[in-house]
Specification:
Chain lengths: 251, 277
């Protein structure tokens, strides 16, 4: 059960001369939710984007070390597009395309070669149901996705990510722009998805980390200060800096 | 100080009004005398005959056919160039390509006409037969002439598409190509439409270059390898010696041309408004 899904060893990452990640080592277990917490600019997004190689888009970004996905090095001899299919991502700001809800969700499957309308219909519905947004949008699935509320858009983004059937789901502050109701919907959804996916969620909300995650990693200035079971890290932080941060005494 | 700006603005408005008043005051009586249906749909333009005949339908079709032809040539090439410039072009090449495209916009149309006459006309003649002065030749030439407009406007539309769409598509496992053609281009579509509309406006109003390669026969279009006359050409070719009703008919041709341009500009305006909403 507690299989290693992702194994990160000795990752150093530079943006030009600036070192954003310093010797990161961690194991992300399968079918668990791992939370990344830490003050702004400490490298949470950077590490997240290293896991599906979205950092490749940044021209002056250099990375060394090793990241294994099911034992396979993702920075060597791998089809990046296939990697990104396996490791899906939900961004901080909803980033739906200016198309219909249907086309947004069908975008991934179409990209990976599914043409049959019957199959696409099925995938779209299944993904929207999984993202707990189907009932709200089923009557206007051919309407523009951009007409939805922020919380709805974010759940469509999750549906869009699920539609390609990833194994890992990276979520970068998925609720930071949302109201409490939408936030709790997404938290329930994340817990629901845990059975089938390995989830990594970045959050600035301590309660959220406690509510949804199994393990928590606390980042500071590009380093991992502490990485343990969520319960123990929040009840008995080992490091003074972790304690300061989670009790709110830290910038 | 404010008054200087006001005066400048008034001069502009005055110029537009003067042109309209002049065109309509001279053109509308001529249209009335000829008869509007006869003028617009008549297929015979023989100002020298007795009785004279003033049907500009062949010229309307002439203008439309070379404009469509220009769109057919210019838009695909221009759009692909814009995609290349925005998404594929190495920095060094871009520094050459961008000013080159801008220079293309600044070349006087008579120079384009010369190019058409010396290069395109023989080229079409040798390749497809006929005498080379044809709808096809004019279309290719106009297609080249609208390139800077199409490229410039669609490139900025493509660049205006937020990066997050690009990232979002890549994060789903899409390739760079798929992302550009299935996400970025659709997202830029209203700007690209604008580019096409502006290109159409440029093509339909073009005069000098078209005259030099289109053959200018005032007859119904008879095939893409045959010559035609556009509305603009009709005016320029005969204005020098026309008098009385003939002169009025030419000015009335100008009125029709103006209405075409007006229609295109309104379309442009509506597209622009929709894009900003
Ligand atoms: N493209 C980039 N080029 C240069 N530096 C960058 C780039 N992206 C991030 N950085 C720097 O790397 C560091 C880590 O950034 P990152 O976005 O990973 O932080 P974060 O922990 O996600 O912060 P936040 O909580 O504000 O989202 C920051 O100091 C940031 O300024
Ligand atoms: Mg971040």
């Amino acid at each position: 059960m507690n299989k290693e899904k992702i194994k990160i060893t000795g990752i150093d990452l530079y943006y030009g001369d600036f070192q954003a990640l310093k010797n990161i080592n961690m194991i992300l277990p399968q079918n668990k939710i791992t939370a990344f917490i830490g003050p702004s600019g400490c490298g949470k997004t950077t590490l997240l984007k290293s896991l599906n190689r979205m950092n490749d888009l940044i021209s002056d970004c250099r990375i060394s070390g090793e990241i294994l996905l099911d034992g396979q090095n993702i920075y060597e001899n791998i089809d990046v597009n296939l990697l990104r299919k396996r490791v899906g991502m939900v961004f901080q700001k909803p980033n739906l395309f200016p198309m219909s809800i249907y086309d947004n969700v069908a975008y991934g499957p179409r990209t990976h070669g599914i043409r049959s309308k019957v199959m696409l219909d099925e995938i779209v519905e299944k993904s929207l149901v999984r993202a707990v947004i189907w009932d709200e949008v089923k009557d206007r699935i051919k309407k523009s996705a951009l007409s939805l509320s922020g919380g709805q858009q974010q759940r469509i983004c999750i549906a869009r990510a699920l539609a390609v059937e990833p194994e890992v789901l990276l979520m970068d502050e998925p609720t930071s722009a949302l109201d409490p109701v939408s936030t709790s919907k997404i938290e329930e959804l994340v817990l629901e998805l845990k059975n089938d996916y390995t989830i990594i969620i970045v959050t600035h909300n301590m309660q959220q980390a406690v509510r949804v995650s199994d393990k928590t990693a606390f980042f500071l200035l590009g380093e991992i200060v502490e990485y343990r079971d969520t319960e123990s890290i929040f009840s008995m932080p080992e490091d003074k800096r972790t304690e300061d941060y989670i009790t709110g005494r830290f910038g | 100080m404010k008054n200087i700006f006001l005066t400048a603005a008034l001069v502009t408005i005055f110029a537009i009004m003067l042109i309209c008043v002049f065109l309509f005051a001279n053109g509308i009586p001529a249209m009335k005398e000829i008869g509007l249906p006869e003028f617009l749909l008549g297929t015979d333009w023989s100002p020298g005959d007795v009785p004279a005949s003033f049907g500009i339908y062949p010229m309307i079709l002439g203008s439309i056919s070379v404009t469509l032809g220009a769109v057919l040539f210019g838009v695909p090439i221009g759009l692909l160039t814009a995609v290349f410039m925005a998404y594929y072009c190495p920095n060094g090449l871009y520094k050459v390509l961008k000013p080159a495209v801008e220079l293309l916009a600044g070349i006087p149309s008579v120079v384009y006409g010369f190019f058409g006459l010396m290069i395109l006309v023989p080229f079409v003649r040798n390749l497809f037969g006929g005498n080379g002065n044809s709808i096809l030749t004019a279309s290719i030439l106009l297609g080249i002439m609208i390139l800077p407009t199409v490229i410039g406007v669609s490139e900025s539309a493509i660049r205006a598409v937020p990066d997050q769409y690009y990232e979002g598509s890549l994060a789903l496992g899409a390739t760079h190509e798929r992302t550009v053609f299935f996400t970025i281009l659709p997202a830029a579509s209203s700007g690209i439409f604008t580019a096409v509309v502006l290109g159409i406006g440029r093509a339909i109003g073009e005069t000098m270059a078209v005259i030099m390669v289109a053959g200018n026969q005032a007859r119904m279009p008879a095939g893409i390898l045959k010559g035609i006359r556009t509305m603009t050409a009709n005016i320029v070719l005969e204005m020098g010696y026309a008098a009385d009703l003939h002169r009025g008919a030419l000015i009335a041709t100008g009125v029709i041309l103006l209405l075409f341009i007006l229609f295109i500009n309104i379309t442009f305006y509506l597209l622009k408004r929709r894009a900003t909403i």
